[in-house]
Structures are given as C-alpha cells and as structure tokens.
Amino acid sequence: MVLQIKRLDKVCIAIVIVISTMCGYLAMRHLSNKKRKITNEKDLLSLKLKDLNLANTNLEELKEALVDTREELKIVNEQIPETADMGTFLKRIDSLMSEGEDVLINVEPLPPIKEKHYSRIPVQLTFEGTFTDTYRILHGLETMNRLIVMENIDIRKSNTDKLCKVSLTTNIFER
Q1: pLDDT of 34-59, one tens digit each?
Q2: Measured between alpha carbons, how far is 75 from 144 in angstroms, rounded to an integer?
Q3: Are 84 and 171 in contact (CB under 8 A)?
Q4: Which residues pair with 149 in a beta bridge?
Q5: Spelled out in words, what is the top-level CATH class assigned to the domain 86-174?
C-alpha cells in the first residue's frame, strides 16, 4: 500500500504540474491577447488623434479662409453697393474736375442694364482739359473705391491749342 501511495502521490503531483502548466499557459495567452488588444487600441487611438489634429489644422485654415473671404466680400460690397448712389459718384467727378482746370461739358446717366447678379449703369462723360489733367481724372476714376469700368474713350484735340476733349462711357454697378 505504501507503494501505491507513492504512485498516487506521483500521479497527483503530475496532475498538479500539468494543471499548473496549463493554467500558466492560459494566463500567459490571455495576457498576450490583452497586450495585443491594448497595442491595437493604442495604434487606433494614435491614428484617430492624428486625424483629429489634421481636422483641427484644416478647421483653422478654413477659419482663416473665411476671414479672408469676409474681408474680400466687404471690399466687393463697397465697390458694388446695394444702390448706385449716383450722387456720391457725381460729387467724386465734380471734385476730380475742380482739382485741375478741367471743364465738365456733359454728364448723362443712361438707363440701367440688368445683368445676372447686378445692374450696370452707363454714364456718358464729356469734359475738356489739358492732357495731364485728363490723365489725372482718368486715374482718379480708375482708383475710386467703387468698381468702375471705362469704355469707349475718345480723346481728341480741342479747338484750342493745349486742351483735349474727352468723351467716355463709364459703367457703375449696383446689386
């Protein structure tokens, strides 16, 4: 019987060793799976963080572009106002004429021409002055704070020696 107990002890020890080894293996496999999942989640979080940073950078760029666009729109709104404000335009022409020795002969606003997004109002101007004053007036019209398109410019020598007679059609715009 002593012999059988030894055998039984050996079998029990072998069973305990096998079970312990299996439990250790299963625990290590479980830890390895957990570690792999944590690594995958870290990588996924890292990618999501990179995407979030990229989206944040894009958002900042879009905000800057929006500010720039608003500034451009403000400039366009100043250049093409809601109403033609013909009085202000005529005052600017009068001030340009009075800066030199030019003589305004004729100002004739024509009926508005409706375009898709705005109306174009042709204004025929006729004035007389020296060549340098004529250049100054054309430059003053061109650099006004509103959009003006000049066309049909006719500069001729006047009946007097040093004067030019200028006829032009300028277009002002309203929305």
Answers
A1: 999 999 999 999 999 999 999 999 99
A2: 12
A3: no
A4: 171
A5: alpha beta
Does this model's pTM top 0.70? My answer is no
- 101, 132 contact by CB (below 8 A): no
* Amino acid symbol at 41: E
- 150 and 120 Cβ atoms separated by less than 8 Å: no
Residue type, 96: L
Q: Of 98, 93, 95, whose CA–CA distance to 126 is shortest? A: 93
- What's the rounded Cα separation, in Å, for the pair 127 and 100? 12
Contacts 24+ apart (CB under 8 A), 24-29: none
Q: How far apart are CA 112 and CA 110, in angstroms?
A: 6
| DSSP assigned state of 159 | S
Structure tokens at 75: 């400039």
pLDDT tens profile 84-123: 678 788 888 888 888 877 788 888 888 888 888 888 889 8
Structural domain boundaries in the chain: 1-79, 86-174
Tracing tokens 């800057």 back to the chain, one arrives at 64
